[in-house]
TrEMBL record:
Entry GO terms, CC: plasma membrane
Lineage, top ranks: Eukaryota, Metazoa, Chordata, Craniata, Vertebrata
Segment forming the signal sequence: none
Tagged with keyword Membrane: yes
Biological processes, Gene Ontology terms: D-glucose import; dehydroascorbic acid transport
Topology of this chain in the membrane: Multi-pass membrane protein
Transmembrane segments: 6-24, 113-136, 143-165, 171-190
Location, primary (coarse class): membrane
Protein name: Solute carrier family 2, facilitated glucose transporter member 9
Amino acid sequence: MWNVLLSFSGLVALTQLLFLPFFPESPPYLLLQKGDKAGCLKAMKQLWGEGNYHTEFDDLMKEKAITKGTKIMNVLEVLREPSVYRQLTTMLLLLLSLQLCGLSATANLHESIIPYVSLGVSISELISVIFCSSIIDRFGRRILLCGGYLLMALILVLLETSLLLSDRFLWMRYFSVILIFLFIIAYGIGP
């Protein structure tokens, strides 16, 4: 019944994808990143209902004033910054722990290939983190979430199909591994 369990995560992602367009953008994102004051207030009213949100809005304006002179760093600048080493170490440990989740076993591969698949999983995670951190400010979270969920749904359908055909065609097992890598990248970019 592992295939039912695997498709359950696709069902959850599809449900989130269907409802995501109906939610407003984050008020801090609208104000701090896009500079949209009216959109920020509208999002606050949509999220929290009618009320007076001037205190929260003023707090966001103060934060915007404080961060106005702050330079946004790229990935290499963040890696060189000593003050974030502890957070980077924690993130790397979490990313490397994905190797123990069992994705490599779903493709029904020979044991000698599984270490390479684990290495590929780690590389896929690294690619997704670098790629996502460099494009999130340009596209915003909503587009990345919607696109990530759409890609994940498509990849899960292809993965299920390739796993069903892996007994008939040996090369489908390797195609399944590629789909697992793509799923990890889509998950890292989106959700």
